[in-house]
Amino acid sequence: MFAIGPPRLPFLLGIAGLVPFLAGAIIVFVAPVLWQALAIKAFIFYSAVILSFLGGIHWGVAMGQEVSDTRGFKDRLLLSMVPSLLAWPALLLDYDDAALVLMIGFLLVRLYERQRSVAASLPAWYQRLRSLLTAIVVLCHLAVLARLTLMN
After folding, report:
1. Does the predicted model carry a pTM greater than 0.85?
2. DSSP character at residue 50
3. Which of 134, 139, 125, 142 is nearest to 54 (CA)?
4. What distance in Å separates the CA atoms of residue 59 and residue 73, rounded to the nearest whole number?
5. Any transmembrane segments, and where (predicted)?
6. Are 4 and 125 in contact (CB under 8 A)?
7. 140 and 25 in contact (C-beta within 8 Å)?
8. Can you tell me whether residue 31 is helix, strand or coil?
9. How far apart are the first and last CA of the chain?
10. pLDDT by residue (tens digit) across 4-44?
11. Which of 1, 8, 34, 109 is the most buried (most CB within 10 A)?
């Protein structure tokens, strides 16, 4: 049997969501210095927003699938808050530290989603899409971190 890809709309929305990451990672290398600084700031802020959004996905999954007095419901709700609790303080850090914290946040969310108990409540297409999106987002963070290192 062959793997079925994500439905068209989630795939297109996921790819569209990569545009600010990809644009930021490119602009920090090719634009004039003032635009590079703005691109870094925009990249960090967008990254924090999207990381928080990923936590919201798991809040929604808990609300829709878990019985409210179960351990799974409580664990998922508590863990759904972690991305925003990483993302918001990251905005208060220097850009290189922020980019690193946010990248680690994306990796942690992905590791969480890959756990058997969590993955069971997510569609298989979501898992494949998130793996692709996370890989690209992490590469973009690495590019921005490399540029920040070159600037110092």
Report:
1. yes
2. H
3. 134
4. 9
5. 12-35, 42-65, 85-109, 129-150
6. yes
7. yes
8. coil
9. 51
10. 678 999 999 999 999 999 999 999 999 999 999 999 999 99
11. 109
